[in-house]
Design goal:
The structure is a homodimer. By secondary structure, the first copy, chain A, is of the alpha/beta class. The first copy, chain A, has four domains: 2-93, Beta-grasp domain (Ubiquitin-like (UB roll)); 112-182, Ubiquitin-like (UB roll) (Roll); 190-328, Domain of unknown function (DUF4445) (Nucleotidyltransferase, domain 5, 2-Layer Sandwich); 348-611, no CATH class. Chain A contains 17 helices and 27 strands. At the A-B interface, helix 4 and helix 5 of A face helix 4 and helix 5 of B.
């Protein structure tokens, strides 16, 4: 069931799914305190079309005026086909009520501990040094620990202890004292989950005392000025150590700016952030650390390190508590990074009993397969078609982009983001267009746009939209007279780009399964990760064969599960440790030069269900 | 038995002691490879007076010409009273053959390990990251280790591994990889033992592969420009954080200059120095680290830390391997520092069964008592008299200083450093002069210079040397017409200074013993530590009551045993760990305001044997 989120977004509900659950799954901003119990009355949405009579819970929490205006609770309202809703504009950028929270059903065990110490003051009968006093006090509460600290902490210790007459709060990370603060600060303990993407960087501020996500912010990766993709960044970095440092510093500045936004918005100090978990692809991981990437992009594609590394924040110049811990997710291989490990940690259902596939869709598509025997991962170059790039009139998902296409005998209906004239087409629109064109007989399974003269079975309104086109071959008009009067079309080359992309993904899936001695029929479930994948129409991706042909309810889009993995690892340090074990166990399958893959690839370009 | 070392130094041999053993004990430069076995023929000395016929060993190792010139082997020559020797000038500043070595009979177990790895090169079938390759290879040789490294090492790793085709040497400190170098560098592994004194800093370069001390250098502590003693340094540091940093930076510069001298002299790289052990008093320890000293010198005298701290060299700005470990000895209290712990580690005989006392003699005198039940330590302000300061014509032990005094009925015989005209008197000369004056009846046990008019029993040549003096009271002439025709004298005030100094030491000893329920008679041995103490005449210090009245053979001077302790801790990491345990167990006795001490002090100023 599809529901439209105004101004221009479509979400698809799973069977039996509540509107609230779907909004959370799509990471859309909705206040959520009681998590669907119907007790808090916070998850208000405005229903502009298809509103139904209020339920008991709604009558209890909403005023008469609200009910008259179409305000309902996302947890309680009955979803209906064709429903259109508006999210409360005030919360669009305010995720204070923990959008991500529901996805994080993990124990609260961040590995950090704040302990209030009431230390006895020195006297001639008790001349122990200040640090020794702290150590003894901690040892009393934590026997057998061999406590240590960094010099910068010892430097300030005597003054801190004397500020509140030897009442002080220590923050412990394993046996290390990360900080000592005057008085009782045990309520204030935060972490940041960081997702460093090639294009953008996202940071979530997590309250580690309460186990809630307070706010998520994101911005463009400062490295984009040096090239859009990992290969161009690697080339730039390899030209000189100075350039490598430039890239390192740019992304660190991006991260520091995001941390600054979070602390400012929530009114906390940077010093009260003690941990940061980081998911990133291997290149972003290396460039963030400033590691040598010269062997990363040339065969045999070797990284400087795939291990789960950790550093003091000061060592990386990251402006949280200087002694805070930056924990990087381990990489699996040069092109299957910590983001893939994070995606698995963030979608733990793929580790359940049975055979499960995770597809992290992006320019570089990573695949993860878990069978009852083993785990496999690979990376397949889907190219930028899914993001609208490389397509003649392709564009990112922003106002003016066609994001939905429905073709009937009578013509073409399009949905445009922002409800304006069409400017181009984004990835989700492209996938739906191709599916619809195939179903309507405008293209055949080879992807060829049919000759309108020879296909008289095709209704006239559709035939009229097929034109000879230019050097990129025959074209199909999705929208006549779009913005500035320009038609939006898909041409033969565009379709070829999509075929290459989906072929690479599909062949990768088959190769992984073949490696495990399995076939598509053995899959119990498919998890689609990546923000982009949340916008895809399940029917379309099945129809064009981007994902294996299994029942739609066994396909689940989980949004940016890599970032969710980072949050989970922050909330529960055991999840971070598990990431290290996972990365060691996952067998990487190199598709470059892999004959199985090449052979599957040829067959996977057909536009048909994959089975 | 006394032997003169030209140009102007006297050493005293213990019964049955060889000349070589005595030279080593006094830390005089003598080449020593076989350590007295008579097999290497290296310990040549030139005997200018009292030479005897060559022994078998000497005939074997020396040429006829050498024998004719009086060259003998220090291990084989029979020592004789009145013998005078010259050390080979070529070795005066060359301790390459390990002067300290003999004092360091500890297991070679520095906690550091260099392992040569022959790592398999990457291939498409083996895409592990570079760091993962290193970790796996180490894990193969060291099961169960969870290996980690600093970012600066990971940064350079890919290039280092590829320099010698994946043959590389790792340096391990516990589970940390301190460095990875191309090729086989397993032979090159060094440490520095550092003694940061208030006045001077000494550094010994130790070959941790072979267990030998290669060279020792020293220089003035760069902080002396900011005050001569710890109290003035503390005051300066407390005026502002900037001034505290100044003091920190000055002493670090001194240390770095010494390290530079060592590496240059031995032709090694600073990067091949992986550990540094540091003995220092508590103030020097804190100022070297840059810690807050504002509570150190005011009651109740609390340090920022007494714990055995360790840091990466880069964190302290010390120019050895940046990831090398700087290990500071623990302090016991604010005025009993890591140097006292070092002195105990460097003279392990004080920890043997029985009751033993260690006296570390200097401006601040630290005492350590070990009984069959417990360990105690205290600090007693001896003042600068032992170093010649505060004495009217006092001076440091350098050419022109009277360092030996013998008084007979006929007059006074003096020994002057450098065999020149007397300029003044140094500490060892002062102690011997007072002893001789007491024995000759020139002063009584109260320390008063007798009235020559009333003491006709005194021979005329001595009586003539007693003069009324000026404001500082009656004086005794040690040398008529010294340098520039000035007489060198000791006056009543000078004697009083020495009485205060020796009284403070003696009372401290009695207080410690009293704390343990013991008396002077219970002592099995006394160890005199501190370079200065090596120059003192055992008979004199017994006679004036500076040390308890026990048989002279139970008193042993061990030189700068704090520095020896630092070397031992470098050679054997277990000794460093033991230092940490020692410091925790030693009970500190505060003498300030201690009534037992005050009462002993009054009685301890008499110039008489202490019993």
């Amino acid at each position: 069931m599809k529901i439209k989120i105004k101004p221009g977004r479509m979400i698809e509900l799973l069977p039996e799914e509540s509107l609230l659950a779907a909004l959370v799954r799509y990471q859309l901003p909705v206040p959520n305190v009681c998590n669907g119990k119907g007790t808090c009355g916070k998850c208000k949405v405005r229903i502009t079309s298809g509103v139904s009579a209020p339920t008991q819970a709604e009558l209890k929490h909403l005023s008469g005026q609200e009910i008259d205006e179409g305000i309902r609770l996302a947890c309680a309202v009955k979803p209906q086909e064709g429903m259109e809703i508006e999210l409360e504009s005030g919360v669009t950028y305010d995720r204070k009520e923990a959008v991500l929270r529901n996805m994080m059903q993990t124990e609260l065990n961040p590995g950090l501990e704040k302990i209030l110490l009431r230390i006895s003051a020195p006297s001639l009968a008790d001349e122990r040094g200040d640090w020794d006093r702290v150590v003894d006090e901690i040892a009393g509460k934590r026997p057998h620990a061999s406590i240590h600290a960094d010099l910068s902490l010892l430097e300030k210790l005597p003054q801190v202890l004397r500020t509140k007459n030897f009442k002080a709060t220590v923050t412990l990370w394993e046996n290390e004292v990360l900080d000592v603060e005057a008085g009782d600060t045990t309520q204030s303990i935060f972490g940041v989950a960081l997702d460093i993407g090639t294009t953008s960087v996202a940071a979530a501020l997590v309250d580690l005392k309460r186990g809630t996500v307070l706010k998520t912010v994101s911005s463009e990766n400062g490295q984009t000025a040096y090239g859009a993709d990992v290969i161009s960044r690697i080339s730039y970095a390899n030209e000189s150590p100075e350039q490598r440092r430039q890239l390192r510093d740019r992304v660190r500045e991006t991260v520091n700016a995001l941390v600054g936004k979070l602390t400012e918005a929530e009114g906390i100090t940077a010093d009260s952030i003690y941990t940061m978990t980081v998911v990133a692809n291997t290149t972003m991981n290396h460039l963030f650390l400033g590691l040598d990437v010269s062997c990363l992009a040339v065969s045999p594609f070797v990284s400087a390190s795939n291990s789960p590394l950790s550093f003091a924040a000061a060592e990386l110049g990251i402006k949280i508590n200087p002694r805070g811990k930056i924990l990087l997710f381990p990489n699996i291989a040069s092109f299957v990074g910590g983001d893939t490990v994070g995606a698995v940690v963030g979608a733990p259902e793929v580790l359940a009993e049975g055979t499960h596939l995770l597809i992290d869709l992006g320019t570089n598509c990573e695949l993860f397969l878990k069978t009852s025997e083993a785990m496999y991962a690979c990376s397949t170059a889907a190219g930028p078609a899914f993001e609208g790039a490389g397509i003649t009139q392709g564009m990112r998902a922003k106002p003016g982009a066609i994001e939905g296409v429905a073709i009937t005998d009578q013509g073409v209906e399009i949905e445009v983001i922002g409800e304006q004239a069409a400017v181009g087409i984004c990835g989700s629109g492209l996938v739906e267009a191709i599916e619809q064109m195939k179903l309507a007989g405008i293209i055949n399974k080879q992807g060829t746009i049919v000759d309108p003269a020879k296909n008289t079975a095709l209704n006239a309104p559709l035939r009229e939209r097929i034109r000879p086109g230019g050097k990129d071959g025959r074209e199909f008009v999705l929208a006549f007279g779009g913005a500035d009067g320009v038609d939006v079309v898909l041409n033969q080359k565009d379709i070829g780009e999509l075929q290459l992309a989906k072929g690479a993904v599909c062949a990768g899936i088959k190769t992984l399964l073949s490696q495990a001695g399995l076939t598509l029929q053995d899959l119990d479930s498919v998890v689609l990760a990546g923000t982009f994948a949340s916008y895809l129409n399940a029917r379309s991706i099945l129809e064009i064969g981007l994902v294996p042909d299994i029942a739609p309810e066994r396909i689940r889009a989980v949004g940016n599960s890599a970032h969710v993995g980072a949050v989970r690892a922050l909330l529960n340090h055991e999840e971070y440790k598990q990431a290290g074990l996972l990365a060691k166990e996952i067998k990487h399958i190199e598709l470059g030069g892999n004959k199985t893959f090449t052979s599957f690839f040829m067959k996977s370009m057909y536009i048909e269900r994959a089975s």
